[in-house]
Amino acid sequence: MIPRYSRPEMVAIWSPETRFRIWFEIEAHACDALAELGVIPKDAAKTIWEKGGAAKFDVERIDEIERVTKHDVIAFLTHLAEFVGPDSRFIHQGMTSSDVLDTCLAVQLTRAADLLLADIDALLAALKRRALEHKDTITIGRSHGIHAEPTTFGVKLAEAYAEFSRCRERLVHAREDIATCAISGAVGTFANIDPYVEEHVAKKLGLKPEPVSTQVIPRDRHAMFFATLGVIASSIERLAIEIRHLQRTEVLEAEEYFSPGQKGSSAMPHKRNPVLTENLTGLARMVRSYAFPAMENVALWHERDISHSSVERMIGPDATVTLDFALARLTGVIDKLLIYPENMERNLNRFRGLVHSQRVLLALTQAGVSREDSYRLVQRNAMKVWEQGKDFLEELLADAEVTAALSETEIREKFDLGYHTRHVDTIFRRVFGKS
Amino acid sequence: MIPRYSRPEMVAIWSPETRFRIWFEIEAHACDALAELGVIPKDAAKTIWEKGGAAKFDVERIDEIERVTKHDVIAFLTHLAEFVGPDSRFIHQGMTSSDVLDTCLAVQLTRAADLLLADIDALLAALKRRALEHKDTITIGRSHGIHAEPTTFGVKLAEAYAEFSRCRERLVHAREDIATCAISGAVGTFANIDPYVEEHVAKKLGLKPEPVSTQVIPRDRHAMFFATLGVIASSIERLAIEIRHLQRTEVLEAEEYFSPGQKGSSAMPHKRNPVLTENLTGLARMVRSYAFPAMENVALWHERDISHSSVERMIGPDATVTLDFALARLTGVIDKLLIYPENMERNLNRFRGLVHSQRVLLALTQAGVSREDSYRLVQRNAMKVWEQGKDFLEELLADAEVTAALSETEIREKFDLGYHTRHVDTIFRRVFGKS
Amino acid sequence: MIPRYSRPEMVAIWSPETRFRIWFEIEAHACDALAELGVIPKDAAKTIWEKGGAAKFDVERIDEIERVTKHDVIAFLTHLAEFVGPDSRFIHQGMTSSDVLDTCLAVQLTRAADLLLADIDALLAALKRRALEHKDTITIGRSHGIHAEPTTFGVKLAEAYAEFSRCRERLVHAREDIATCAISGAVGTFANIDPYVEEHVAKKLGLKPEPVSTQVIPRDRHAMFFATLGVIASSIERLAIEIRHLQRTEVLEAEEYFSPGQKGSSAMPHKRNPVLTENLTGLARMVRSYAFPAMENVALWHERDISHSSVERMIGPDATVTLDFALARLTGVIDKLLIYPENMERNLNRFRGLVHSQRVLLALTQAGVSREDSYRLVQRNAMKVWEQGKDFLEELLADAEVTAALSETEIREKFDLGYHTRHVDTIFRRVFGKS
Amino acid sequence: MIPRYSRPEMVAIWSPETRFRIWFEIEAHACDALAELGVIPKDAAKTIWEKGGAAKFDVERIDEIERVTKHDVIAFLTHLAEFVGPDSRFIHQGMTSSDVLDTCLAVQLTRAADLLLADIDALLAALKRRALEHKDTITIGRSHGIHAEPTTFGVKLAEAYAEFSRCRERLVHAREDIATCAISGAVGTFANIDPYVEEHVAKKLGLKPEPVSTQVIPRDRHAMFFATLGVIASSIERLAIEIRHLQRTEVLEAEEYFSPGQKGSSAMPHKRNPVLTENLTGLARMVRSYAFPAMENVALWHERDISHSSVERMIGPDATVTLDFALARLTGVIDKLLIYPENMERNLNRFRGLVHSQRVLLALTQAGVSREDSYRLVQRNAMKVWEQGKDFLEELLADAEVTAALSETEIREKFDLGYHTRHVDTIFRRVFGKS
After folding, report:
1. Any idea where the Adenylosuccinate lyase C-terminal domain is (chains A, B, C, D) (predicted)?
2. Same domain for B159 and B266?
């Protein structure tokens, strides 16, 4: 996470201020439950909410205390006591630091997930708009980077829409996975705190109680979360690379929007570099890489060790901030993408009708010509196009063996691009629902 | 995937025989649909099922053809034609190789997922049985590898049960993700084949039609699948490492079952090595690593490139076979795990009552002693235990300042292990439901 | 490692036969040293070499024994005894299984490294030949996939040559890293065996004694080895992707050699897919992924745990066999690569001289025109090329403001491609040495 | 890279101030060379050094310019011109941004490598000191976490010393790999700049000229660098995990130094958590993970794409800062490690002599008892120790069948710990040289 690739709202989730505020809320909600249970006075709980709620926590001060205590939660509680006064002794009763830390992480990750879901929604909206806009914009489909058969630019974007819809669903699952609360004490046995406290805090924070925490919330949840971010990043990479390909000098079927202020465009008008999508390719590599330490974090020793902590202090912000930035950047790219239908057409027609060779082959077979003969017929005409730059349709019409099997109308019909796009409606209905 | 770490049922899914059989079924189902649409004769479809269904495909022969054609699907179709005869020309009409390959992979992965789900079910059953058996077996909970507070061995296993229940749910999602069928032609536009064929084949094979395939099924699905396997592997690693720790010479609270035939046990009875769980640790590393190339496979070029293919030929079998083996091995380990409650008790009592120091501290605070004084009191008695091997309870009872705050009964009550386990029922209810 | 992507020589290194033969040699060399030290009779050592050397080990039989003993080395020794007779009791004295296993792995990995070094040498030879052949073949250099300035195809290949030369050097280091021998007993203290035995065996096998083994050879060595393979794989990926780009329909500056037998070429002559380099892209992902579990293997517990073993049983063959195959495949691709200088020229001239705009800009600046004015002048002429398809040179010559600063000769000179290639000799000298 | 796990000297390498200073030096050195070649006036070069050298670059100002130009190097040059005045037009002549960026990265990475080498040296010094101190401190060696045979604590540390010596050597290689300079223009052909400039700048900055750069320095170099850091991190993890194991409650053979200020120690004196080494375990996961995107960065498109840039902006600082911190932290841990020889002895004697069973077994065999009988004899006495807590030596001396084969002296001699440590000198000589 570096400023260059960060957006403020996601960064804010990981600020010390936010963290301390969440810590406070966990402690205060726990006090409510403890008061309800009669463990601490109701007045104390009220005071804690009032004075703590109004407090402006001083990050510097907390850091200062931590340097002595070498313990972040104790440092915070010490500082909180400075605001709350004597009733502060009722705070954190029967709890362990991890109760606060892990529940806080759950709150932060769910908030991060909510931002990411909104990011995906914005991306989906942009993809849908551009997909509908270019539903019928014919372009050559490519396998292996080589021309195959026609498709439409809208279908390309519809695929991306479907893919990010899946990513959205996966993120919903992943969000659910990490949305749990643990207030269960030193080894998760609720030895010093009633399970009711956990239930109460969970409810207030929109989380579910963790069925079995062992001081910590089990890290398979976080592993799944970060692995899901890695998959989403990979889908970003796919779309980014598609655009980079389309912007290649020789292809130029689409282009990232180029703001007038950007240097270099003037003297070399062809030199508009797909820097945003190249950047997204790199960011995807980063987000993906964070899945690995997250998976290694699962196997904590016994009821817990703290090896996961440094990892999460890094990848918590790094993965979510970077993915948030990447999704927003990709949305911007799609939203303003310059699309060049005329270049698509020009590229499509590059081989003067050869793109239809498969259809002609099929038609010959269906007209009763043997597979071998059909091949031979298509091949000898295709070769004239390929080697001498002839026009495929004209050559076929001039080939007596071909016209013996297929009428001119039938042959011409095989060169109809509409043939390739007649099921686009079906595809769009599948992706976007009833139109 | 190597024989040593493989089980036959999962291996069979990836055999050439299985693959060719699935290919045949895809082709034959497609023929049914094509016949229904009137594209090919109904009799032909019938013949194809009959003759192809009865055929015993010769893997050697197909390989031989492939060496010439350098194309596996064409090699198979050529071989299939040798059984079907003239009607074979109606097979594969309007389809592309990837229609067969990708749909086949979906069938293989769903079958693999079903085996893995059954594996997890078996593991869950073993975990539940042992968890209930040791629900009340008290053991020390450890954070940082250091004694913390008591818990029960059943709670440890209940956590594992809850964790693998989550893994199961994730795998169900992942299975759904890869259970799609694509019969959509060279670039996914259904140019030469009606979408109805895809719907029909999907239905017959228990798959859903892929909303937008582009010759290939998008690889974000497979990335999510293999990432999920990686997370499951990480949970296996966690439990494996727990057992390895418990089997350490100095701990010896549990032990892998040791078959009498195994060498080495006799002369060095202490030298029973947790080789199965060590092995599981290694296997987990492997399964996890396969998630990476799967994620890199997502960003195929344009409508498809074939870079994913070699990866999947390897990790398809490697990841599923290894995980299947690992789950089964772990189930065996749990099922027969030797558990030593007496050693657990001995370890727990290692520090002569010190494990209760936190409760005493809390009690003093609740009795009105200031936090600082409480610490001091607990500390000075704890130090006698730590440094001179005294008994913590006796020291406390002999400390006038302590007894001024707490009665003997109150102090003794703090040494009750039942205190720590009184919420075990709640935990078990959360995990296993109403008991 | 699957047959499709394997070559026999590398596969043979990992066969059980090879492994048992190496085990035998380790044991027999150790016997020589033990005999020299007077620990065992010299005759026994001689007998062991004679009878064991002549033995044809029966893999099935060893597997059978292992199924009972659950110990591979004991199974082998039992089988070996069947050949050697009574003197077999002098074999393996004071040694531990890992002495045999780890030293054997070192022998296998060094042999694998030697094959890989030969593979790289073959690749380097192919690259050098083609680089020299195309030293002066002008082609457009591309940054961001966009035309930049001219370079030569030979320079592209010289870069690859330099890169694989570095890979070679890294592999030499990596080979050195894993070429150690350990015959040091249960925890590496030489308790039951004199260090001289290790020195002797090491010398005989072309290895160095491991300074401190702890039953096992430390796994940082292997981690470095597999990480190095991962880097080499990444360089393969780079060159593979370069070729895939060059073979794109719209670019077509180079093409994988296409054997006449390959189907599909005839009817769609443009449809020659870069399947070999796509395949290499996938294989690179696999080899890279193996670096991860290798790094996780480093942190074995105490003097050793056996978690590394399953990983190495897989990645040992998988990584080396796959990389060997990939290097050989890449060499074949480079060796027979179809290179199309005329297409390179056509692509280069796509923008009618615009490629020289930077030089004109620089010339104007050097002629005293301010940077801003220079930009303006170049830009207004460039735009006519870009938007109206004019010729850049002609436009400049017709621009009075330009000709006021630069003479026609000076302007024309800026369109000399030789300008861009005049340092190619320097580059080649750096890479290939004195020419 | 987060402040909590950062040290100022390494952080400083990655500050904007340092970066701009290096950029300036590259530009100024290039000007010297250009002046020498007569391309720009000598006075201009002098002025640039004087005015630029004295300048205090304003990071805010550069950022501000970059927000308009969207180009960092141009922003810097614009700002530099504000100091240098009219002669600034001679700066950067014939160069491309990457010439500056990549050469700067090389300078930063070599400086980072130098710090890391110093870190390793400090760690080696600590390891050596403690290794010599505990050369003869006997401790039990453990395989599989189970007691095996005695070794010394010094040997453990000597292994770590040898391992980090290897890491040092690898880092030296990796440093060499990234220590190159590129001043070669838009596609690396030196079209607008003489190769002499590159040679001059390289020399001045302690780098070597990159044999073939293609606008960028090839990224296999950086991949190797970060992969090497990943291997070093894995060695850190190994030593960290060793210490975590030794500090386990039941083992307690060593302990991280515990500063008096740390909370929690007082009431639960057994609760000293190995938090530093747990933290190192997590940091190692992070550093290792960065190797992956670095490897993915290798396959840039054609002469360059910019996807590597975002990755390096992150992992450049993240990997080096984290590893620097981790090495320093580990050095501190080793330096002050509390080592408990008496606990080592207690653990070693846990099974009342059973640790010597292997030696007795061997002695019986060597005394002519058959392997089977030897096993049986050792086993029946071992079992009395294991099951009834008897003393192994006493049982053996009381076993007539044993004493028939071995004299009391011979048997007693097998219980001599000195037997296990008699080759420690050899090991130390191998690691630390002549003592």
Report:
1. 352-432
2. yes
Q: Which active-site residues of C does the annotation give?
A: 144, 265
Q: pTM for this structure?
A: 0.97
Q: Identify whether residues A288 and A370 lie together within a single domain.
A: no
Do residue B244 and residue B101 come from a single domain?
Answer: yes
- For residue D283, the chain A residues in CB contact (below 8 A) are 310
Give the C-alpha separation, C59 to C76, whole Å. Answer: 9
Residue B435, domain member (yes or no): no
Residue A139 has φ and ψ, to the nearest 5°, of -145, 160
Chain B residues in contact with D278 (beta carbon < 8 A): 144
Which of B2, B288, B293 shows the shortest C-beta gap to C286? B293
- Contact (CB, 8 A) for D113 and D175: yes
Nearest to B351 among D267, D270, D272 (CB): D270
Which CATH number do you get for residue C372?
A: 1.10.40.30
User: Same structural domain for residues B112 and B66?
Assistant: no
Split into its structural domains, chain D has a count of: 3
Beta-carbon pairs below 8 A across chains B and D: 124
Q: Vertex D294, ends D290 and D298: CA angle to 5°?
A: 170
Q: Complex ipTM, two decimals? A: 0.96
Which of B90, B112, B138 is the endpoint of a domain?
A: B90
User: A227, B142: Cβ pair inside 8 Å?
Assistant: no
Residues C182 and C70 in one domain: no
Nearest residue, CB atoms, C273 vs list A144, A249, A274: A144
Question: In this structure, are residues D284 and D326 in contact, taking their beta carbons and an 8 Å threshold?
Answer: yes
One-character DSSP codes across A21-57: HHHHHHHHHHHHHHHHTTSS-HHHHHHIIIIIHH---
Both tokens assigned to D359: 């030696």
To the nearest whole angstrom, how far is the Cα of B283 from the nearest Cα of chain C?
A: 6
Identify the CA nearest to B51 among candidates B97, B91, B105, B12. Answer: B91
Boundary of a domain, candidates B50, B74, B90: B90
Are D50 and D133 part of one and the same domain?
no
In the block, tokens 């987000």 appear at A287
Cβ–Cβ below 8 Å for C382 and A278: no
Determine, yes or no, domain membership for A419.
no
Print the SS3 string covering C182-195: CCCCCCCCCCCCCH
Dump pLDDT digits (tens) for B154-203: 999 999 999 999 999 999 999 999 999 999 999 999 998 999 999 999 99
C237 to chain D: which residues are within 8 Å by CB? Answer: 298-299
Q: Residue C296: its chain A contacts at CB < 8 A?
A: 296
Same domain, D130 and D56: no
Substitution target in C59, C242, C283, C306 with the highest count of B β-carbons within 10 Å is: C306
Q: Alpha-carbon distance B44 to C281, whole Å?
A: 41
**What are B's interface residues with C at a Cβ cutoff of 8 A?**
2, 4-5, 68-71, 74, 244, 259, 261-264, 273, 275, 278-279, 281-283, 285-286, 288-290, 292-293, 296-297, 301, 305-311, 313-315, 318
Which position among B143, B144, B266, B435 bears the catalytic label? B144
CB atoms B282 and C68 under 8 Å: no
Is residue A105 a part of any domain in this protein?
yes
Q: What are phi and psi of A39, to 5 degrees?
A: -75, -35
Per-residue pLDDT of chain B (435 residues; tens, 9 = 90+): 889 999 999 999 999 999 999 999 999 999 999 999 999 999 999 999 999 999 999 999 999 999 888 889 999 999 999 999 999 989 998 899 999 999 999 999 999 999 999 999 999 999 999 999 999 999 999 999 999 999 999 999 999 999 999 999 999 999 999 999 999 999 999 998 999 999 999 999 999 999 999 999 999 999 999 999 999 999 999 999 999 999 999 999 999 998 765 555 456 777 899 999 999 999 999 999 999 999 999 999 999 999 999 999 999 999 999 999 999 999 999 999 999 999 999 999 988 888 898 889 889 988 989 888 888 899 899 888 888 889 999 999 999 999 999 999 999 999 999 999 999 999 999 999 975
Residue C9, domain member (yes or no): yes
Give the domain range for residue B8: 3-90
Which of C190, C231, C431 lies closest to D224 in CB terms?
A: C231
**Strand-pair category, B338-339 with B254-255:** antiparallel
Residues in chain D within 8 Å Cβ distance of A96: none
Domain at B65, CATH number: 1.10.275.10
